Hints:
The structure holds two protein chains of two kinds. Chain A is an alpha/beta fold. Chain A has five domains: 5-79, Roll (Ubiquitin-like (UB roll)); 105-185 and 516-563, Fumarate Reductase Iron-sulfur Protein, Chain B, domain 2 (Orthogonal Bundle); 196-290 and 439-501, FAD/NAD(P)-binding domain (3-Layer(bba) Sandwich), CATH 3.50.50.60; 294-436, FAD/NAD(P)-binding domain (3-Layer(bba) Sandwich); 680-743. Chain A is 28% helix and 19% strand. In chain A, a hairpin with a 2-residue loop joins strand 27 and strand 28 (710-716). Chain B is an alpha/beta fold. Chain B has a five-stranded mixed β-sheet with strand order 7-8-6-5-9, sandwiched between helices. A five-stranded mixed β-sheet of chain B has the order 13-12-16-14-15. A four-stranded mixed β-sheet of chain B has the order 2-1-3-4, covered by helices on one side. The A-B interface holds A 45-50, 53, 61-62, 64, 66-69, 82, 85-86, 89-90, 93-94, 96-97, 591-592, 594-595, 615-616, 618, 634-635, 637-642 and B 266, 283, 285, 288, 290, 436-445, 447-452, 455, 472, 475-476, 479, 482-485.
Amino acid sequence: MSENIINLKIDGKDISVKKGTTILDAARANGIEIPTLCHSEYVKAYGACGLCLVEGENMPKLMRACSTVAGDGMVINTMSPRVVRARKIALELIMSDHDGDCKAPCTKACPANTDCQGYVGLIANGEYKKAVEVIKEALPLPASIGRICPHPCEKECRRHIIEEPISIAQLKFFAADKDLAGDTYIPEIAEDTGKRVAIIGGGPGGLSAAYFLRRKGHSVKVYDKMPQMGGMLRYGIPQYRLPKNILDKEVALIENMGVELINNVRIGESISFEQIRKENDAVIVAVGAWKSMKMRVKGEEQEGVFGGIDFLRNVILGEKPEIGDMVAVCGGGNTAMDACRTAVRLGAKKVYVIYRRTRNEMPAEDIEIKEAEEEGVIYKFLTNPVEFTGENGRVNGVKLQIMELGEPDASGRRSPVPVEGKFESIELDSVIMAIGQGSDLTGIDGLDLTKKGTISADENSFVTSQEGVFAIGDVINRGAGIAISAIGHAKKAAIAVDAYLNGVDICYKEPYYSERVVTRESFPNVSEVSRVKMSQLSPEERKHNFDEVVRGYTEEEAQREAHRCLGCGCHDYYDCKLIKLANNYDIDPARFAGEKKTGYVNKNDFIERDVNKCILCGLCVRACSEVMNITAIGLVGRGFKTVVSPAFALPLDKTNCNACGLCVQLCPTGALQERSLLAKQVPVKEKPEKITCTECDKNCTVAVSYVGGKVARVIPADKQSLNCVLGRQELIERISKKLSDAK
Amino acid sequence: MIDMKIAVGQGSCGIAAGAGKVYAALAEQGLGSVLTKTGCIGMCFLEPIVDIYGDDGQLKRLVKVGEADAEKIAKYVKEGDEEAVKSLEISPEDSEFLTKQTRIALRNCGIINPENIDEYIARGGYSAIDKALDMTPEQVIDIIKTSGLAGRGGAGFPTWFKWNAARQSVSDTKYIICNADEGDPGAFMDRAVIESDPHNLIEGMLIGAYAIGAKEAVVYVRAEYPLAIERLTNAIAQAKEKGYLGQNILGKGFSCEMRIKAGAGAFVCGEETALIESLEGQRGMPRLKPPFPAQSGYWNEPSNINNVETFANVAWIITNGGEAFAAMGNDNGKGTKVFALTGKVKRGGLVEIPMGKTLRDVIFDIGGGMRSDKAFKAVQLGGPSGGCIPAALIDTVIDYKSLSATGAIMGSGGMVVMDESTCMVGMARFFLDFTTKESCGKCVHCRIGTKRMMEILDRICRGEGKQGDIELLEELCVSIKDGALCGLGQTAPNPVLTTIKYFRNEYEAHIDDKKCPAGECVDLISYSIDPEKCRGCTLCAKKCPVSAIEGTVKQPHKIDTEKCIKCGNCKAVCKFSAVVCE
């Protein structure tokens, strides 16, 4: 053996490397990845991040693998408990001083974690197809969900700090409608795995689970007791909010992916639960909550008293429930709103909504409350039915207890208390009780239930008490929720079910995200721009029919609205090394919460620097001086107050920065970003394609990435192209023009 | 008039105490012909000091001399009136401060005029380089090896080993560098050596340069030491003129040039690789080791860096032999070490003693114990990188190993003595505040880790400490020691670790009971007046800077706690111990 070869052991593996090789390189060459945030082959070892620490046998100190030369006979452990502890603390410390949002608040607020910022940004750029692709990573029914979702995303939208949130949901169905009208997107489906999954219940949860599992290549059957798929989207949401032809198209897409949809099947009648379990490798129970709750009020068994969801279903099935002229709807939720507005459309003359609290406490969406009022609905706030009076077994009125608000209860809402001796009576022809829903588990036996009668399931893995049986949606734990929550369950459960089918035990884990606190002052350059109102039918136009109330956005309106997005989430999220490591090491930076460095954002035409996100790895500074010999930026200040900055805090375009982009390429976080060529900057996964530039005789390699059909970036991809003779601007212009022309 | 010499101690410390004015006043008395200056005598607590040498060589040492005393001195000098200066003479006890020391590195300090090379030569100066140049470099390194001299800057690394490594590195260009970036709060021995005996440093460096084969020597002095820079600049010029520096030194074929680089005041530049970065004109941030400077240092050439005190021993060792040096000390440390004794001790100053003595010897025997009647509590050794040693361990032997065993370090020799009135949490916070501010910001553990430790200590001292804070601090300490890039970060947790180790109950009192047992943390204390003891003398009310004390003469006074800023003036001035601090 040559004298120039040394032997060592890393993580139990015998390794031979050339003398002079660092431990980091020796490990990498043998497939052992040692993390680092400050090391790159472009520049000299630096040793700042403290993540490449490794432990050597019989060595008292931990060593930095990036700079320690491997010695003959060394025994190295790259993942010893001491090493892991040191790395974890290093990451926690870095994160405690890293001020930025990995993901936008809208995305985090969505129970299915739909990348709202991503698709809104794509819509702003006119990339509708790509927008739908992004949406369909999280939910398969965007045209339907976009119409009916109570959009928790919008509640969290930071734009409300400025004036009003972005119309995220409406933009979603704008893009989805475009997609349904044209060349519809169908996601890629993995090769058949031969595994079979049965899903009981074809509502938003069940259909979504089918969609996600089918994408993984599993064979999926969806059983549903109703004549058509869609569950509550079809039978619980009135036509005027969600036209069923839209739902039909979206269901058809799932069917086209190869999911088998079987309707009119009642479990325990045409097929037993046992048999379904036997025939399939996994079963997901997603039967929803289809039982209307009773109020336990005298007289509620009489004719003319309907359950809220039963009433809505019957109307959609084409039956004409006899509600008469005077109708009272009990409840303050969205179902109550759907019921009262449906009653109006059925021709009722007087429709009351009886609610024991006030308008402020109503759980229904504001817009629903308002639109119902516009359609003539009469609110009876602070009243509670004590008796439904009747004649000959048919309801003819209600006696209402007058209420007032008392102390706040556990939910924080002020609880209603009866005002002694005060009552009111109303004459009625019918009553619709929309006060809650329960599940009907007939035919589905053997699963542990909660006290509420729902299936008990783990909310990270969605496993139930029975092997191979998973449960999602309204039927589990807390019971009925919103459709997107059931879809969120489906998305997460699909991960667990897929893992289960592959014989591994993985469940969904909420990722760690960095998050910043903002105020109006955080947006000094953002001025007020009202949200673009979607045009809709007037109350007179809409109250006598079931036509869809909203008309949808025009392209111009949609783009204008989408441009309002503040772009909160980090534009480098998909390339960020820091967040990947942070999640790998299961960190808890809150332990070290404290002052953060105060930075600023500074940009030129190509590069955007956000000092708040900088972790001072020094790669940019070193690349700029060691590789490029430009030194446009340097380290300024000392200790905790150190920042990377151009000299005298000049803006970047006042330095000799030639925008080579090497600093951006090496930056392990989102502190340095390459501004994309798109009108609206948007973080999406990009796959750069390397091409040879023929603009001069140097034949450099440049990387081009597209977002949808547009060139988003042209980046030097080898060392010589960093000093492009054309200059950055010219290079981008020439190449993107050439590529667009070729298209 | 008797033939004599009057030396006024004019180190920075003496000048700060008024030695310059005393010197001028003496000159005005017509004593200019016998007046001379000397460097730091080492007894800070007695400055300004005037040493009068009789023609018989007998020394009369006058202390705490003021301008107004010049007349008395003149009277004594001109008329021989002993009585005139009687009250200024040093007491026998105070004299022990020097007589109990063994001075090697400081051997000329306070004795010679640092601005006069002839005085250095008269005391054997530049004979060691003469002797060394007759030996081979290897023989010189051997003598240093025999002496057991170790790095006095803090790390205690064997000097011969570094010299030998630099000697072995093959290159035409090598550098010898002196680290005079003395930055530890409470350490001032390096300044004293340069200000008081600059030629000793030059000679030590020359011997080192010869040993490793360097032709260029650089002294990296912090710019905050202007007098040191001035005297060293002067000394370099004189040495050059006399042929001790420059080409063909003493005609023996060895050449070496020397220059000074003034550092801009970053503590981290005391770390040798950060010092090199700074010398090269870069931001002072440590480099990764390896490669060590002996392999690739200043301008990527083999370089050797030693501290001032280390070099200050070298000429003596060459002259007297390695064995003579090694005869002092014990198995864990050879020779002497200089300590800068400060804090609540009665006699503070520079103390040079052989290794093997105990802390008690320094603090009580030489330092005279506590200044007040309060009990000795602890001593912080090694500055912000060191640790604190509690009273129970006062008999700890002074050598590298024994001190490290306590959790402290020898360090550069800062020794801050504390009594009962010092809050140990506050003390740890003070030193950590220093390292946090002096962190260069390069590595994560030091930059953010020390900052987070500071925040935790801040909240503990504010009375907002939480359960688990001590454990969190300990976790951070261990992790920073493991993960920090250089010595600054790796040792920064030491004051916190050792105070937790020895004074955990004080931390707990802050966190659990929201009390500061030493009564130092202002957010955790309040002042009140015991009406039984108060005689209504009104002194406290007069001294209160915010008029928070009310009361009429001969009636018990009262403190308005809303107004009180907890400065403690009232307690300090009360003659009846009526002011209570809880």
